[in-house]
Amino acid sequence: MKFAQQAGSIAVIGLAACSGEYRVGSDTAKASAQNDGGRSSSFAGAPSAATDAGVSGGYALAGASSASTVQTFCGVPWTSASSVEFAPPDVVAPRLGRFLFGANLVPRTLPAETTRQWAGTLAVSSITSSDLTGLLGLHRFVNDWWPGTYSPETWAAYFISEQATLSDLLTTGDQLSHGAGMLTDRAVLGRGGISERGNFIVGHLLCLEIPPEPDSVTEPPLKVGQTRRSQIEAATGIQPCLGCHSFFDPLGYALGNFALDGSYQTRENDLPIDTRATLTMLRSSGPKTVLDAVSLGSTLSNSCEAVLCLTRQLLRYAVDSAGLPAPASDQEAAAIAAQFSASGFRLRELVRLVVESDVFLRAN
Question: Quick check: pTM over 0.90?
């Protein structure tokens, strides 16, 4: 599979001046979540599957009486209590259609009133009965989230699969030999440089902002006895460069086996490529050592930062595509992220939870 170089900008949320301190949303990310490295792990603050038993999605129904218990997910507080007025079904159904299909959805029959269970069931039944090519709304979300992607339809398919998880999305080798899913999509590899690849992932998958490199900075030709990694380590090993590069360059190091066109390589400038790297931006779990692209995907997919970032972006896209005036809050995103974690990071469950959320269902 050959990739053309892609240009693009990243939509990111909050890193402070390369000091090593950063924010996720409006809250400082702290070690408030746990990660056991397993695909079905859940984080501190994530409810169990039995939370609010009998209530769809683990939330209290609108108007229901429920004790408000404040919890946190990746440093962001959220509460399971909810009491909002829902829009009627004939308003909610078109919203769902615009989110998933890019067009209004008008079911043949509608209930008398909106409930989370009805909305979530409608979302799941609609995507499972639809041809993938018709899910233009999800295709657009992938394009917005991962600009420059080789095939948005391919990645959108993971969001409608019954069993596909975030780990599958970031570790699959189906699209590229030795690949790691979206991490080795042309949107990332086409950027070429170690720092550019890492910066893209930090911005789009972790929602952290890194100041851009000065325009005057370019990678010089490699010298004898030098790889791109050793070159950049020598150039950025002192301040003020080290503060930023220590965050995003390790992500690029882990992808070092992949050339600009996506071909796999083990040597560069007649030297072995070292893809081992230590991630320091995952404050929820502390430093993590990864071995290569697939190891990177597995580690990131089990981080609360990636879970919260993906949730926030999908929720924001759903709200925007539905034409809703009120933006989703960090607290609403954290509540959904906690439920997503408890589901074993199943992507279709994330879609359902977004549709069942207060911000998506509430009356204007």
Answer: no
